[in-house]
Design a protein that fits this description.
single chain, 261 residues, alpha/beta, Rossmann fold, globular
Amino acid sequence: MDEMSGTPHRARGRVRSADGTRIVYERRGEGAPVILVGGALSTAGTERPLAGLLAPRYSVVTYDRRGRGGSGDTGPYGVAREIDDLAALIDEVGGRVFVHGVASGGALALAAAGGGVPIERLSVFEPPFSTEAGARDAFTWQRRRLAGLLDRGQHGAAVEMFLGEEAVPAWEAPRLEAVAHTLAYDHEVLGDGTVPAARLGRVHTRALVVDGGSSPARTRRAALAVARALPRGRHRTLTGQTHQVAPHVLAPVLEDFFEEE
């Protein structure tokens, strides 16, 4: 804690993943470690508001996933390499580690837990799988379309395709385009886009799946399906919230989950 300002101390660091890739992270506060895994197009800075709210009780780590911000991008990309990145961070902070993943970051955290990475408790917010009819074909089409745009260097178009009707502020466009190539990585993390029930069945840590009550019904159906596929999974809906969940609403939910007996 900064004695002058009363705010949790923040420090930057780096760790080497199994393949030698540099992963840059930020750490705030003291206490049990919590690692926040960002979703598509995010960097360590994206999760700072939530990290700041959790930092008075925890040592909160946010990081640039590979290919983003200050982190490296050793190729070829593989989901196993991103899992190694998270495992390296867990080794770095040590102790009983809690993990919270957002969207595709939640899918990555679930894959890590299913692969044996030691996570004490795991929460995820709206992992972007689907239970809808035709989801696999739609996901395959989207994946091919995105790959084509990225191959042609049309990063702005790739960002617009991913965000759909959501407008991109002009001041945000350069940052988003700089990490647009990692949208292909997120598609790899999601597999065929459907709920991976068999893989989720191998996640034996206690897990919480959260969605927003004002998110589309298909998003909430998928979140519930993920929770039901987890051996120790629970589901919770936050009334009035959307995919852009308010950090001050989410933070106490995570604290309750991490602290419960």
